[in-house]
Amino acid sequence: MGAVTEVVETKQDRIARRQVDKFQARRTELAVATLHTLAELGYARTSLREIAQNSEFSHGVLHYYFADKRDLVTEAVRQYEAVCVTRYDEVVAGAGTGARLREDFVDMFFATLNADAPLHRLWYDLRNQSLFDETFREDVREIEERREAMIWRVISRYAELCDAVPALGSGSAYALLDGIFQRALWCALSGRAGDVAALRGELVRALDLLVGEGQTQ
Amino acid sequence: MGAVTEVVETKQDRIARRQVDKFQARRTELAVATLHTLAELGYARTSLREIAQNSEFSHGVLHYYFADKRDLVTEAVRQYEAVCVTRYDEVVAGAGTGARLREDFVDMFFATLNADAPLHRLWYDLRNQSLFDETFREDVREIEERREAMIWRVISRYAELCDAVPALGSGSAYALLDGIFQRALWCALSGRAGDVAALRGELVRALDLLVGEGQTQ
DNA sequence: AGAAAATCTTGACAACTGTCAAATGCTGGA
DNA sequence: TCCAGCATTTGACAGTTGTCAAGATTTTCT
Q: A178 and B179: CB-CB below 8 Å?
């Protein structure tokens, strides 16, 4: 009897898994559409009907795949995380010298600033929402941690290449670079290209300060 | 005939001015109520009726004193500005030594963090709104400028007292401290008192880095 | 092919939104 | 005292929102 039920179960399992996969695939598809709508309109003005219009489905389907709006937005945030949290890893891996790492990092910094500006402003929007709505807090904390770790990989590797030691801890270093990024994003979205360019120099100076030359320890 | 009309006019002017004053007084009164409601609920979930309930009037009166919702929110933001943009001036004025200034600044930093947390999260909320809604951009830019200047008064005075020169420009220095403040605010509102306490040390280190001892120039 | 199940659309609901106009209460001047 | 004009309330409007259920459609399995 064991054998038969086992065969049957695995068969059902295969079916179930395939269904689950399809279900999950559509879920993330809709989450991606949500992400783009949120990035365009911001959290405050994004409605389910608007999201559905940015997909190829009608608004009712959202409640087939998601429990409620929060569930949907949460899943969308997770999509953001997947995209935006490993951005500098190849830069770190590919740089042989400190100067090269610094240059590549700054380039990537401003490249994603310009290319993904709507996505980034959404991230800041949701991080702020978590200051009011504690439902978002856990997800935000998790992503914030990964972002901090991502920056720290850059900084500590940069210090290593420069034969130095970072002048600030992981949290403060992230606060500094994220602060510069936020400001640059604001300037970019306001059409102040000149101010953005000026911030490039500021970023270089900040990196030099964080990992001053010759501060071997 | 000139004299008579002049007398009449000044009389009417007095009346008119008194009315204007009363009008303005109520306007700011309602703007303050708006500010508190916004600080409690965030921009996305603040409705006119909710604002009115936090005042002693009914919701209709808001359209008597304000053209529309944006007008109201804008006026509320200006109230925030009046409160929050001169906070460190007495600290700067009253400190005789660098060590004293640093200590007082850090104390004030965390005092307002805890006392006015809802107000601060509102500021960040509105600054983010301006990334999506360009109507807010000018007001945000103005306040952001004043905040940066406020921080710069602290930093440059601190450097002066330490006989040193700031290691970063005004913009980057603000980005660093504001980044730390944002993070501390998040921790405070999440009930992570321990993390907030840890950030006090980070802030001190950041100040020391910005105005390193002996960096006379 | 036909039944069963999964998927998607449509339309409706109650609640809530910003806005405004009509009605009411109120105050200050003649 | 009475009245004009200011201040405030009330109630309504058109539109939007999240949610959900009933039905239509498509896919899947036997």
A: yes
Tell me whether residue A216 is in a domain: no
Tell whether B123 and B45 lie within a shared domain.
no
User: How many domains would you assign to chain B?
Assistant: 2
pLDDT band at A40 (very low <50, low <70, confident <90, very high): very high
Cβ–Cβ under 8 Å, residues B161 and A162 = no
Nucleotide closest to B61 measured between CA and C1': D8
Written as six digits, the tokens of A22 are 């399809």
CA of A60 to C1' of C13 (A): 14
- With H, G, I as helix, E, B as strand and everything else as coil, classify residue A167: coil
Q: Is A217 among the domain residues?
A: no
Instruction: Mark whether A60 and A160 lie in a shared domain.
Output: no
Q: What is the CATH number of the domain that holds B64?
A: 1.10.357.10
**pLDDT beyond 50 at A162:** yes
Cβ burial of B137 (10 Å; 0-12, 13-18, 19+) is middle
Distance (Å) from CA B60 to C1' C20?
9
| Residue range A74-129, pLDDT digits in tens | 999 999 988 888 999 999 999 999 999 999 999 999 999 999 999 999 999 999 99
Q: How far apart (Å, rounded) are the C-alpha atoms in residues A136 and A58?
A: 26
B202 has pLDDT over 60: yes
Domain membership of residue A215 (yes or no) is no
- Give the mean pLDDT of A179-192: 97
How close B80 gets to chain A, by Cα (Å)? 18
pTM above 0.85, yes or no: yes
Range of the domain at A93: 85-210
B74/B95 same-domain check:
no
In angstroms, what separates the C-alpha of B193 from chain A's closest C-alpha?
Answer: 15
Distance from CA of A152 to the nearest CA of B (A): 15
- Distance, in Å, from the CA atom of B171 to the CA atom of B162, rounded to the nearest integer, reads 21
Q: Which of B131, B169, B172 is facing A189, going by the closest CB pair?
A: B131
If asked whether residues A160 and A94 sit together in one domain, one would say yes
Note whether B100 contacts A: Cβ–Cβ < 8 A: no
Q: Is residue A10 part of a domain?
A: yes
Count of C-beta atoms within a 10 Å radius of residue A131: 24
B124 touches chain A (CB under 8 A): yes
CB contact under 8 A, A175 and B168: no
Q: Are residues A94 and A72 in the same domain?
A: no
Residues A195 and A139 reside in one and the same domain: yes
Q: What is the mean pLDDT of chain A?
A: 90
Task: Let me know whether B64 and B94 are in one domain.
Answer: no
Bases of chain C below 7 A from a protein C-beta are 6-11, 16-22, 29
B132 closest CB neighbour out of A121, A179, A198 = A121
Helix (H) or strand (E) holding A208: helix A193-210
| pLDDT for residue B5 | 39
A13 pLDDT band (50/70/90 cuts)?
A: low
Residue A181's closest CA among A126, A130, A106?
A106
